[in-house]
Structure formats: structure tokens, C-alpha cells
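Weekly sync notes, structure subgroup
Attendees: PM, AL, DS (notes)

Item 1: joint prediction request from the bench team. They want all three components modeled as one assembly rather than separately. Inputs as received:
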Amino acid sequence: MVRVLKELRPENTIPFEMPTHCPVCGQPVVREKGEAVTRCVNISCPAILKGSIEHWVSRNALDIRGMGEKVVHQLVDKELVNSVADLYELTEDTLANLERMGQKSAQKLIEAIEKSKSKPWSRVLYGLGIRHVGSSIAQTVTEKFDSVDKLAAAKVTDIEAIYGIGVEIAESIYKWFRIEANQTLIERLKNQKLQFIEIQSAASSNISKKLEGKTFVVTGTLPSLSRDEAKELIQKFAGKVSNSISKNTDYLVVGENAGSKLTKAEKLGIAQLSEEQLLEMVNS
DNA sequence: GAGCCTCGAGATCT
DNA sequence: CTCGAGGCTC
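Output from the run, pasted for the record:
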């Protein structure tokens, strides 16, 4: 890709101009120190909005099924949605009027939006799209700050005190909560009954570490668990999940239509488990 | 029934 | 990232 561009250029002498304004909304862009790129920081820029909504609905965030790229773009372009909080005020009829959407899809989508309200605080935090806060950091942060109110009130040094979190992330979170638009967003989402407090279920607070020290890889289609559910289950019991087979893999959980991972595991003589056997390991 | 959209899975690289 | 399957609209 880069090579092609160079070849197309008559001489390699044309300097690449760093954009000073957002190509989509025309607002000035900002370059953070130490970064090689500029970013649009206009919170109502359509491009930023689309990105943040796509992130909010994504698998590891609020997991709103049926809300794909096309739907998000339509909602933003028609100005039906100006922030993620607006998603919770959409009606079935509004959705059914979108291109390529019928009553049935609209109904399913409304259900998926409703369902997202029960997603845990860690996913909500990840969904907010704070710079440097990915799903793993969000998980770590919510283990120490079990509600937004506590996190919003925390000083940089409080956040930085968490093992595995440095100044950069701590400052990023701290700054995010000082922005007024973000504060009102949180208020709206609270009223819409999103989860901002970690519910300590009796099961998770006192769970055994049965799989501690073991590394798993999942392949194929399992009879009842989805891939992510299987991963979550393993992690819940302190096991590690990897995406590829290596000498360090302890078990391969095998489902229907397993591919090259099974072949490789056989070659390395790695123990195999069925979904049923995995469940037995954690339930025994 | 064709085409559109979303989603899961494997492969591959970093 | 790319492919293919499945569900839904039109």
C-alpha cells in the first residue's frame, strides 16, 4: 500500500502535509504530544460520532446485535442519533423506516438495545471509548473502582495506584471526566438505566481458581457455548486463553469443524477437551 | 428469489 | 483481513 503510493508519486519530494482541519467536519484538529497523527476532537463531528457509536455497540462493549455499520451511518446522517444516549430513545417505528430495515429487524434491534442495559459496568466503561482504555484496562479499573461515581471522583494518583496502570492512562481517564459533555452523557445513561455499579454476584466474589496456571485454546464450533462464552468461562476460573497453539498450550477445547489448530495440537501432543469435559473441570 | 447486511470463524501478522 | 453462512428486505 505504502509502496504503491510512493510509486504513483512522480518524485519522493512531495512532503506529506499534516492536516490542520478535519476533512469531515472542518474543525481544527489536535495533535497530542509524542503522537505522529492529528485527531479531530469535535464531539459532534459525524465521523467521530459514527466511530464512537460503532464502538459502543461492538461485541466487547455493549454488544448490540443487528446494529451494524449501515444502520449507524443512517442514524447519524439523518440526525436521529447525536450521542450514544440517543440510542436508548429510539422507537421501533423510527428504526423500521430506515433503509433495508423492516418491522422484524426493528423489533429485534430494540430488544438488543434493551438487553444492553444489563451489561456490566466494565463493558460500559470500555464502551465510552476513553483513550487508552481498552476492554482489558476497563476490566482492571472497574475491579478497583466499582462505580462511576468513585472513578469520576478519583485523582490521577488514585487511578495510577492500580497495578498495571501508568500516568498516561490515569490522566486520560481523569481528563475525560472533567469534560462537561461527558458528565451529562453519564447522567443521561444513568437515567436510562445502564449499569454504573459493579454487581458483586455471590458466585463471582467467591469463585475457585480451578484453571489457574493452565492455558487454553478454543477451536471449532462448540455445542452450546459460543467462542466468547467459552473464553469468559475459562477466564472466570483463572485460566488463560490464547488464540494460537504453542508448546505453552495445556488444553485445546475442540468443537465441530475444527481446522488447522487441531492438526497442530495433534502434532505437539496437546491434550484435547470437549465442551462437556471443560464444563466438568470447572464444575467438579 | 436475489441481493443486502451482519456475524462467526480461521489465518496471518505484529 | 477474508470468506461463507444465515436472516431479512424488497
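Discussion: Confidence is low (pLDDT under 50) at residues 1-13 of chain A.
Action: AL to compare against the crosslinking data before next sync.
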